[in-house]
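Quick one, tokens below:
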């Protein structure tokens, strides 16, 4: 994926080193399912995720140690991609006669305080509607590669774009309350997550049109990442069985389908179908 000399976002708050250091599990864009399922079934998620306990010590107020070059490279990448989402969504909202209210990117390590409460790195990247912030612990990228086999720069960009997709859908008025009347709440959550995948694809469609940043293999890496973080696959990894009634993000097939659909069409209005189609046809 080409970064060229595109600018980093200025809407970034770097809190790395301010929280306790903890081993990172597969995370919020889908891996949080592993933690939830393990806890629901009485399985210790630490054992499955390969963590060794809390790790590290609480922040003692001392200056953070300088980050290593590899981490700084990931930070730069994330800030540039976040900037790309700002520029693309700003243009698309203007075309719709709307104003894009930019979110803030928060980089953290270990744990972080948000308007949605204290969050541990184990939940992975997440969007908090209470403060309109996107939270990312950069070590999640390592776990994408090592734990999920979902490496690649565009796969990482997909992670960022998915969380920003939650901000976009909030600005467009979508929430779990948008689900059909009488539908179980977990199905509304699946609709919301698949819509964020779709919007990540829409962003990539216009981002590549604007910056020509996609290289051979990039799209495949992102679609592969979507496959690796489907609820069915993660549940099978965690417990050996699949429980559709506990889905919150969608199956591997669904996540690949809607990411690819947004990427191919670039149709923002098409996001509405995620709340219009019967659940069985998602």
């Amino acid at each position: 994926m080409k970064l060229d000399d595109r600018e980093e976002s200025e809407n970034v708050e770097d809190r790395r080193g301010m929280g306790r250091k903890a081993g990172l599990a597969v995370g919020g864009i889908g891996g949080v399912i592993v933690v939830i399922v393990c806890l629901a079934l009485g399985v210790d998620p630490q054992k499955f995720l390969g963590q060794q306990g809390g790790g590290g010590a609480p922040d003692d107020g001392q200056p953070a140690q300088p980050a290593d070059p590899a981490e700084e490279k990931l930070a730069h990448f994330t800030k540039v991609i976040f900037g790309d989402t700002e520029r693309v969504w700003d243009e698309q909202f203007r075309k719709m006669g709307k104003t894009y209210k930019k979110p803030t990117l928060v980089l953290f390590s270990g744990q972080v305080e948000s308007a949605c409460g204290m969050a541990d790195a184990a939940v992975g990247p997440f969007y908090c509607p209470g403060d309109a912030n996107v939270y990312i612990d950069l070590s999640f990228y390592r776990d994408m590669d090592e734990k999920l086999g979902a490496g690649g720069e565009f796969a990482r960009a997909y992670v960022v774009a998915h969380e920003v997709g939650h901000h976009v859908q909030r600005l467009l008025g979508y929430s779990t309350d948008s689900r059909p009347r009488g539908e179980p709440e977990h199905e509304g959550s699946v609709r919301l997550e698949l819509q964020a995948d779709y919007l990540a694809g829409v962003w990539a469609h216009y981002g590549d049109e604007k910056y020509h940043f996609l290289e051979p293999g990039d799209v495949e890496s992102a679609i592969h990442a979507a496959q690796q973080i489907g609820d069915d696959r993660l549940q099978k990894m965690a417990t050996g069985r699949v429980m559709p009634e506990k889905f919150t993000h969608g199956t591997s097939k669904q996540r690949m389908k809607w990411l690819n659909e947004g990427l191919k069409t670039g149709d923002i209005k098409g996001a509405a179908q995620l709340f219009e189609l019967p659940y069985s046809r998602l």
